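Q: Please design a sequence for this.
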Protein backbone atom coordinates (compact mmCIF):
# COMPACT_ATOMS: atom_id res chain seq x y z
CA UNK A 1 0.00 0.00 0.00
CA UNK A 2 1.50 3.34 -1.00
CA UNK A 3 1.77 6.08 1.56
CA UNK A 4 -0.52 8.30 -0.49
CA UNK A 5 -3.28 5.69 -0.15
CA UNK A 6 -3.09 5.62 3.63
CA UNK A 7 -4.96 8.30 5.63
CA UNK A 8 -2.24 10.62 6.87
CA UNK A 9 -2.22 13.14 9.67
CA UNK A 10 0.37 15.80 10.16
CA UNK A 11 1.42 15.09 13.71
CA UNK A 12 1.63 18.05 16.08
CA UNK A 13 -0.12 20.51 13.84
CA UNK A 14 -2.15 18.73 11.25
CA UNK A 15 -5.41 18.42 9.51
CA UNK A 16 -6.82 15.21 8.09
CA UNK A 17 -5.78 14.90 4.43
CA UNK A 18 -8.68 13.73 2.35
CA UNK A 19 -8.42 12.57 -1.24
CA UNK A 20 -8.52 15.68 -3.43
CA UNK A 21 -10.69 15.59 -6.56
CA UNK A 22 -8.91 16.74 -9.69
CA UNK A 23 -11.61 19.23 -10.62
CA UNK A 24 -11.72 20.92 -7.21
CA UNK A 25 -9.30 23.66 -6.14
CA UNK A 26 -7.50 23.36 -2.79
CA UNK A 27 -9.53 26.23 -1.34
CA UNK A 28 -12.70 24.15 -1.44
CA UNK A 29 -11.46 22.22 1.59
CA UNK A 30 -11.34 25.22 3.91
CA UNK A 31 -14.16 24.46 6.35
CA UNK A 32 -15.49 26.58 9.20
CA UNK A 33 -13.35 24.55 11.59
CA UNK A 34 -10.26 25.35 9.55
CA UNK A 35 -11.20 29.03 9.50
CA UNK A 36 -11.51 28.96 13.29
CA UNK A 37 -8.10 27.31 13.57
CA UNK A 38 -6.62 29.94 11.25
CA UNK A 39 -7.99 32.67 13.50
CA UNK A 40 -6.28 31.04 16.50
CA UNK A 41 -3.01 30.72 14.58
CA UNK A 42 -3.18 34.35 13.46
CA UNK A 43 -3.88 35.58 16.99
CA UNK A 44 -0.95 33.52 18.28
CA UNK A 45 1.34 35.14 15.70
CA UNK A 46 0.10 38.73 16.07
CA UNK A 47 0.27 38.66 19.87
CA UNK A 48 3.10 36.20 20.32
CA UNK A 49 5.78 38.01 18.33
CA UNK A 50 5.63 41.41 20.10
CA UNK A 51 4.72 39.91 23.49
CA UNK A 52 7.61 37.46 23.65
CA UNK A 53 9.98 39.98 22.05
CA UNK A 54 9.19 42.43 24.86
CA UNK A 55 9.93 39.76 27.49
CA UNK A 56 13.22 38.87 25.79
CA UNK A 57 14.20 42.53 25.47
CA UNK A 58 13.44 43.26 29.14
CA UNK A 59 15.10 40.18 30.65
CA UNK A 60 17.83 39.67 28.08
CA UNK A 61 19.09 43.21 27.61
CA UNK A 62 17.91 45.28 30.58
CA UNK A 63 18.45 43.13 33.63
CA UNK A 64 21.23 41.41 35.44
CA UNK A 65 20.99 37.66 34.88
CA UNK A 66 19.62 35.55 37.72
CA UNK A 67 18.51 31.92 37.87
CA UNK A 68 14.84 32.93 37.82
CA UNK A 69 15.18 35.44 34.99
CA UNK A 70 17.10 32.95 32.84
CA UNK A 71 14.28 30.40 33.07
CA UNK A 72 11.67 32.93 31.94
CA UNK A 73 13.99 34.28 29.25
CA UNK A 74 14.41 30.87 27.62
CA UNK A 75 10.69 30.14 27.90
CA UNK A 76 10.05 33.32 25.90
CA UNK A 77 12.77 32.43 23.37
CA UNK A 78 11.15 29.03 22.72
CA UNK A 79 7.77 30.67 22.14
CA UNK A 80 9.20 33.41 19.90
CA UNK A 81 11.05 30.97 17.65
CA UNK A 82 7.85 29.03 17.19
CA UNK A 83 5.50 31.95 16.42
CA UNK A 84 7.96 33.30 13.83
CA UNK A 85 7.32 30.12 11.81
CA UNK A 86 3.52 30.33 12.12
CA UNK A 87 2.97 32.26 8.82
CA UNK A 88 4.14 29.17 6.94
CA UNK A 89 1.47 27.00 8.51
CA UNK A 90 -1.18 29.73 8.21
CA UNK A 91 -0.45 29.90 4.49
CA UNK A 92 -0.56 26.10 4.24
CA UNK A 93 -4.06 25.83 5.71
CA UNK A 94 -5.38 28.97 3.99
CA UNK A 95 -4.48 27.56 0.56
CA UNK A 96 -6.24 24.25 1.18
CA UNK A 97 -3.18 22.36 2.48
CA UNK A 98 -0.86 23.27 -0.36
CA UNK A 99 2.79 23.48 0.71
CA UNK A 100 4.83 25.58 -1.77
CA UNK A 101 7.85 26.07 0.50
CA UNK A 102 9.79 22.90 -0.26
CA UNK A 103 10.79 19.79 1.66
CA UNK A 104 13.34 21.38 4.00
CA UNK A 105 10.98 24.06 5.29
CA UNK A 106 8.38 21.31 5.72
CA UNK A 107 10.83 19.49 7.97
CA UNK A 108 11.97 22.66 9.75
CA UNK A 109 8.43 23.90 10.40
CA UNK A 110 7.39 20.63 12.04
CA UNK A 111 10.64 20.39 13.98
CA UNK A 112 10.27 23.92 15.37
CA UNK A 113 6.74 23.15 16.56
CA UNK A 114 7.95 20.06 18.43
CA UNK A 115 10.99 21.88 19.77
CA UNK A 116 8.73 24.58 21.18
CA UNK A 117 6.42 22.07 22.83
CA UNK A 118 9.21 20.10 24.51
CA UNK A 119 11.38 23.11 25.40
CA UNK A 120 8.42 24.97 26.92
CA UNK A 121 7.23 22.08 29.07
CA UNK A 122 10.79 21.22 30.14
CA UNK A 123 11.45 24.83 31.18
CA UNK A 124 8.16 24.90 33.13
CA UNK A 125 9.16 21.67 34.85
CA UNK A 126 12.58 23.10 35.69
CA UNK A 127 10.99 26.29 37.06
CA UNK A 128 8.72 24.21 39.30
CA UNK A 129 11.63 22.14 40.59
CA UNK A 130 13.64 25.32 41.08
CA UNK A 131 10.87 26.79 43.26
CA UNK A 132 10.62 23.60 45.31
CA UNK A 133 14.37 23.42 45.94
CA UNK A 134 14.63 27.14 46.69
CA UNK A 135 11.87 27.08 49.32
CA UNK A 136 12.21 23.61 50.82
CA UNK A 137 16.00 23.11 50.61
CA UNK A 138 17.46 26.60 51.02
CA UNK A 139 20.97 25.40 51.96
CA UNK A 140 21.25 23.26 48.84
CA UNK A 141 19.74 26.10 46.81
CA UNK A 142 22.23 28.66 48.14
CA UNK A 143 25.14 26.39 47.27
CA UNK A 144 24.15 25.09 43.84
CA UNK A 145 21.48 27.46 42.48
CA UNK A 146 23.92 29.64 40.58
CA UNK A 147 23.76 31.34 37.20
CA UNK A 148 26.45 29.00 35.87
CA UNK A 149 24.59 25.85 36.90
CA UNK A 150 21.34 27.28 35.56
CA UNK A 151 22.96 27.91 32.18
CA UNK A 152 24.21 24.31 32.11
CA UNK A 153 20.69 23.01 32.82
CA UNK A 154 19.26 25.31 30.15
CA UNK A 155 21.71 23.93 27.60
CA UNK A 156 20.77 20.37 28.57
CA UNK A 157 17.06 21.18 28.14
CA UNK A 158 17.61 22.65 24.66
CA UNK A 159 19.65 19.61 23.62
CA UNK A 160 17.05 17.21 25.03
CA UNK A 161 14.17 19.04 23.32
CA UNK A 162 16.15 19.01 20.06
CA UNK A 163 16.80 15.27 20.27
CA UNK A 164 13.19 14.33 21.07
CA UNK A 165 11.86 16.62 18.34
CA UNK A 166 14.42 15.55 15.73
CA UNK A 167 12.40 12.67 14.19
CA UNK A 168 10.42 15.34 12.36
CA UNK A 169 13.58 16.20 10.43
CA UNK A 170 13.71 12.60 9.20
CA UNK A 171 10.06 11.64 8.67
CA UNK A 172 8.52 14.87 7.36
CA UNK A 173 8.24 14.87 3.59
CA UNK A 174 6.37 16.50 0.72
CA UNK A 175 4.10 14.75 -1.77
CA UNK A 176 2.61 16.04 -5.02
CA UNK A 177 -1.11 15.32 -5.41
CA UNK A 178 -3.61 16.23 -8.12
CA UNK A 179 -3.79 19.77 -9.52
CA UNK A 180 -0.16 20.39 -8.48
CA UNK A 181 -1.13 20.34 -4.80
CA UNK A 182 1.84 19.59 -2.54
CA UNK A 183 1.26 18.35 0.99
CA UNK A 184 3.63 18.27 3.98
CA UNK A 185 3.12 15.01 5.86
CA UNK A 186 4.75 12.25 7.91
CA UNK A 187 6.28 9.71 5.53
CA UNK A 188 6.82 6.86 7.98
CA UNK A 189 7.28 4.39 5.13
CA UNK A 190 6.27 4.00 1.50
CA UNK A 191 4.88 0.47 1.55
CA UNK A 192 5.07 -1.24 4.96
CA UNK A 193 1.79 -0.51 6.73
CA UNK A 194 2.83 -2.26 9.95
CA UNK A 195 5.97 -0.14 10.15
CA UNK A 196 3.91 3.01 9.58
CA UNK A 197 1.63 2.10 12.48
CA UNK A 198 4.59 1.18 14.72
CA UNK A 199 6.43 4.46 14.08
CA UNK A 200 3.29 6.53 14.45
CA UNK A 201 2.47 4.89 17.78
CA UNK A 202 6.05 5.18 19.06
CA UNK A 203 6.36 8.90 18.29
CA UNK A 204 2.91 9.72 19.66
CA UNK A 205 3.54 7.97 22.98
CA UNK A 206 7.04 9.47 23.33
CA UNK A 207 5.56 12.94 22.89
CA UNK A 208 2.76 12.21 25.33
CA UNK A 209 5.00 10.74 28.04
CA UNK A 210 7.92 13.17 27.81
CA UNK A 211 6.02 16.23 26.63
CA UNK A 212 2.96 15.92 28.86
CA UNK A 213 2.55 13.12 31.40
CA UNK A 214 5.98 13.13 33.10
CA UNK A 215 6.19 16.97 33.33
CA UNK A 216 2.60 17.14 34.60
CA UNK A 217 3.24 14.58 37.34
CA UNK A 218 6.50 16.32 38.30
CA UNK A 219 4.81 19.70 38.67
CA UNK A 220 1.86 18.28 40.59
CA UNK A 221 4.24 16.58 43.04
CA UNK A 222 6.34 19.73 43.43
CA UNK A 223 3.41 22.01 44.19
CA UNK A 224 1.73 19.45 46.41
CA UNK A 225 4.90 19.13 48.51
CA UNK A 226 5.25 22.90 48.63
CA UNK A 227 1.72 23.37 49.94
CA UNK A 228 2.16 20.52 52.41
CA UNK A 229 5.61 21.29 53.75
CA UNK A 230 5.67 25.07 53.89
CA UNK A 231 4.23 25.67 57.35
CA UNK A 232 4.01 29.43 57.04
CA UNK A 233 1.64 29.49 54.11
CA UNK A 234 1.95 33.26 53.75
CA UNK A 235 5.49 32.74 52.47
CA UNK A 236 4.08 30.63 49.68
CA UNK A 237 0.72 32.19 48.92
CA UNK A 238 1.99 35.77 49.03
CA UNK A 239 4.75 35.03 46.56
CA UNK A 240 4.24 36.72 43.22
CA UNK A 241 6.51 34.15 41.63
CA UNK A 242 4.40 31.25 42.93
CA UNK A 243 1.17 32.56 41.42
CA UNK A 244 2.85 33.56 38.17
CA UNK A 245 4.41 30.12 37.69
CA UNK A 246 1.20 28.37 38.68
CA UNK A 247 -0.81 30.41 36.15
CA UNK A 248 1.70 29.73 33.35
CA UNK A 249 1.75 26.00 34.14
CA UNK A 250 -2.05 25.69 34.31
CA UNK A 251 -2.53 27.58 31.04
CA UNK A 252 0.09 25.42 29.31
CA UNK A 253 -1.63 22.16 30.24
CA UNK A 254 -5.12 23.52 29.51
CA UNK A 255 -3.96 24.50 26.02
CA UNK A 256 -2.05 21.30 25.24
CA UNK A 257 -4.32 18.66 26.84
CA UNK A 258 -6.84 18.48 23.93
CA UNK A 259 -4.01 18.04 21.43
CA UNK A 260 -2.50 15.08 23.30
CA UNK A 261 -5.91 13.47 23.83
CA UNK A 262 -6.80 13.60 20.14
CA UNK A 263 -3.29 12.54 19.12
CA UNK A 264 -3.81 9.32 21.06
CA UNK A 265 -7.32 8.86 19.64
CA UNK A 266 -5.83 9.43 16.20
CA UNK A 267 -3.80 6.22 16.51
CA UNK A 268 -6.99 4.20 16.04
CA UNK A 269 -7.53 5.65 12.57
CA UNK A 270 -5.13 3.07 11.11
CA UNK A 271 -7.57 0.28 11.94
CA UNK A 272 -10.93 2.04 12.28
CA UNK A 273 -12.21 4.97 10.24
CA UNK A 274 -15.29 5.55 12.41
CA UNK A 275 -13.60 8.51 14.13
CA UNK A 276 -12.74 10.17 10.84
CA UNK A 277 -15.28 13.00 11.12
CA UNK A 278 -14.47 13.68 14.77
CA UNK A 279 -10.73 13.89 14.16
CA UNK A 280 -11.16 16.00 11.02
CA UNK A 281 -12.85 18.70 13.12
CA UNK A 282 -11.20 18.16 16.48
CA UNK A 283 -7.54 18.08 15.46
CA UNK A 284 -7.45 21.55 13.79
CA UNK A 285 -9.11 23.14 16.81
CA UNK A 286 -6.96 21.32 19.37
CA UNK A 287 -3.84 22.29 17.43
CA UNK A 288 -4.95 25.92 17.21
CA UNK A 289 -5.68 25.88 20.93
CA UNK A 290 -2.19 24.51 21.60
CA UNK A 291 -0.57 27.14 19.38
CA UNK A 292 -2.33 29.97 21.19
CA UNK A 293 -0.32 29.07 24.31
CA UNK A 294 2.78 30.62 22.73
CA UNK A 295 1.32 34.11 23.03
CA UNK A 296 -0.35 33.84 26.43
CA UNK A 297 2.56 34.11 28.85
CA UNK A 298 3.23 37.85 28.30
CA UNK A 299 -0.52 38.46 28.63
CA UNK A 300 -0.53 36.54 31.92
CA UNK A 301 2.32 38.73 33.17
CA UNK A 302 0.14 41.78 32.48
CA UNK A 303 -2.97 40.33 34.12
CA UNK A 304 -0.97 39.32 37.20
CA UNK A 305 0.76 42.67 37.54
CA UNK A 306 0.00 44.47 40.79
CA UNK A 307 0.89 47.73 39.07
CA UNK A 308 -2.31 47.37 37.05
CA UNK A 309 -4.25 47.77 40.31
CA UNK A 310 -2.74 51.19 40.94
CA UNK A 311 -1.92 52.62 37.51
CA UNK A 312 -4.56 52.72 34.80
CA UNK A 313 -2.61 54.22 31.91
CA UNK A 314 0.43 51.98 31.82
CA UNK A 315 1.89 50.56 28.62
CA UNK A 316 1.87 46.83 27.93
CA UNK A 317 5.66 46.64 28.12
CA UNK A 318 5.74 48.40 31.51
CA UNK A 319 3.15 46.01 32.95
CA UNK A 320 5.19 43.04 31.70
CA UNK A 321 8.36 44.60 33.07
CA UNK A 322 6.74 45.25 36.43
CA UNK A 323 5.45 41.69 36.84
CA UNK A 324 8.79 40.19 35.85
CA UNK A 325 10.46 42.47 38.37
CA UNK A 326 8.01 41.31 41.03
CA UNK A 327 8.76 37.71 40.10
CA UNK A 328 12.50 38.24 40.27
CA UNK A 329 12.22 39.90 43.68
CA UNK A 330 9.85 37.26 45.04
CA UNK A 331 10.95 36.04 48.44
CA UNK A 332 13.18 39.04 49.06
CA UNK A 333 10.66 41.84 49.35
CA UNK A 334 7.54 41.48 51.45
CA UNK A 335 4.17 42.04 49.81
CA UNK A 336 3.18 45.09 51.91
CA UNK A 337 6.50 46.80 51.22
CA UNK A 338 6.35 45.95 47.52
CA UNK A 339 2.75 47.17 47.23
CA UNK A 340 3.68 50.49 48.82
CA UNK A 341 6.61 50.75 46.42
CA UNK A 342 4.26 50.19 43.46
CA UNK A 343 1.79 52.82 44.61
CA UNK A 344 4.49 55.36 45.42
CA UNK A 345 6.13 54.68 42.07
CA UNK A 346 2.98 55.68 40.16
CA UNK A 347 2.53 58.83 42.22
CA UNK A 348 6.14 60.01 42.03
CA UNK A 349 7.29 59.32 38.51
CA UNK A 350 4.10 59.45 36.52
CA UNK A 351 3.81 55.84 35.42
CA UNK A 352 7.54 55.39 34.79
CA UNK A 353 8.89 52.12 36.11
CA UNK A 354 11.99 53.73 37.55
CA UNK A 355 14.84 56.04 36.70
CA UNK A 356 17.68 54.18 35.06
CA UNK A 357 18.00 50.46 34.63
CA UNK A 358 16.45 47.99 37.06
CA UNK A 359 18.47 44.92 37.91
CA UNK A 360 16.65 42.32 39.99
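A: Design:
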Amino acid sequence: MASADIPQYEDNFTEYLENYEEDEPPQSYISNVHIASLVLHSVAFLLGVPGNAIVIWIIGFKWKKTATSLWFLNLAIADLIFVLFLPLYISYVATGFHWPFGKWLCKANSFIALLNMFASVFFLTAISLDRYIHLIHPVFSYKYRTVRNTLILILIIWVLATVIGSPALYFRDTLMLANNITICYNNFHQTDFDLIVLRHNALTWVRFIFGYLFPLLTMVVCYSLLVRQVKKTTILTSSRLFWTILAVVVVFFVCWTPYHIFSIIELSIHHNNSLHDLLRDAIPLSVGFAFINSCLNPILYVLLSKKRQYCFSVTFSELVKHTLLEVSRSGTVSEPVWNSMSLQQCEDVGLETSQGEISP
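Q: Thanks. Anything notable?
A: The first strand starts at residue 172 and ends at 176. Strands lie at 172-176, 182-186.
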